[in-house]
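Run log, item B.
One chain of 492 residues. Sequence copied directly from the ordering sheet:
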Amino acid sequence: MLIIFLFFFIYYQVFFADYAYLDEIHQLWHNKDGSNYNMFFSQGRWLTGLLINKLFGGLSAIDELKYLRIFSFTGWVITTIVWHIVFSKWVRAMKLDSRLPILSDVFIASCIAVSIYIGWASCLELFIATGAGLISGHLLFYTLHGVQGYLRIPTTILVLSIAAGLCSLFLYQSAFGIFLLPFLIYYIQSKKIKPDRIVWIGIATYFFIYVIYYFLFRYSLQHSNVQAGDRVGISLDVLKKASFFFSGPLPSAFSINILYSPRSIFSQIAYPLISITWIIGLFRQNRKQKIISFIWTLGIIIIFLLLIYLPSMIAIESFASYRTLFPFNLAVFILVMMIVLPFFQSGKKRNYFTLAICLFLLATGFYNYNFQLINPLKAEYSSVKSFFEKNYTDSVKQVHFIRADKFMFRASFCTEAYRDEFGVPSTHRDWVPEPLVRQLVYEKEGKKEIAENISIVQYPDTAIYRSQHPSMQKGDLIIDMNKNFYEHCKKR
């Protein structure tokens, strides 16, 4: 009941907010031509392609996108409940602090990545991918843990674990990293310098599932005569990827649910402060080890984190978007809590600390979702829709679209641009204006043929628009996003 309350508290706007964010409008407009499936299929996510194709195919209007977000919202409530059940089993089996499940529940509900998954309908598959990866790892770990002597994995458990892992990978590769989480927690809790056979079996199975996935993916491309997408290229530049890991994913994870920007003074202070505190706490818990042994332990934990983030580490693209970081951030959060909780000697102090962290997470989760993501997007969509309804007539044959400035939200909503997920207007991106205009025309005229025949010319900004001196025909419509947005905000 607490989990359900947390989600309703943070994400209440999911039930009535109307907007179209980035890929959503492209997938809505192209929901019948098969391009959505083809795009995901070429990226190794054919299950996502099927899901997106089916769900977006049932929609016809922008205000119906909220149904997909509600679908994702419901899925994440269920996934968090499953997580609570599974993680509670790990806590009992490994004799961890009983406060960890509620801390992790609140973290998931408040998590930056989850706010994107719920607020962005294009990410609706993530709760299934995460849940499948979680079940895959749990089945194997729970079978191995506590077994003395000869280890034998029942064939049914192994097949189910592999099947769930493949399901996760064919939905969203980065979600599968959660598979390793119980093995990482087990390694830390055991305080062993060298990983034991349970850890090695977990890692070996993790790689084995990747190998099966890779060959199935390549076979599917060859069988369908389809070229692999640009994002599935593999990078072998180890130094570049190491630099990326320590400058992107790791600082973001150690910022504990605060939007991370390398230009922010707060981020520059919080990341090293939290990470150094964690290292000190880890050393304190392993103080019986020699320095070289402790460095070895720390190195293995870093390798574990690298493996959890493996799909993005080997990808040719180095882009630490929050939507790829959920298993990684969850792992770092649990590691920090496991180390920090013992600093408080009495149960009463630990309870106060737990309460303080939960309130902090709720506050940041509520703020990130509502003020950094949803409110600006609602205002952007409302501004373009109201302008369109007032000025569009059936005589319009051509639309000149001046795209939004990247920092258009800053003055009215005090947002900053984080990756392509927070604070960036949808209409700043070049793939948004065309399907957005066509969808608006379609919803007003009721015929796709009319929307398809509209000519759309877009400009990155007002200066380029003026420098090109476009020839205007009678009835042409000019949509200047920055002007419309600022005028709309003044009237609010």
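Observations after the first pass:
- The longest helix spans residues 347-391.
- Residues 384 and 484 are 7 Å apart (CA to CA).
Flagged for discussion on Thursday.
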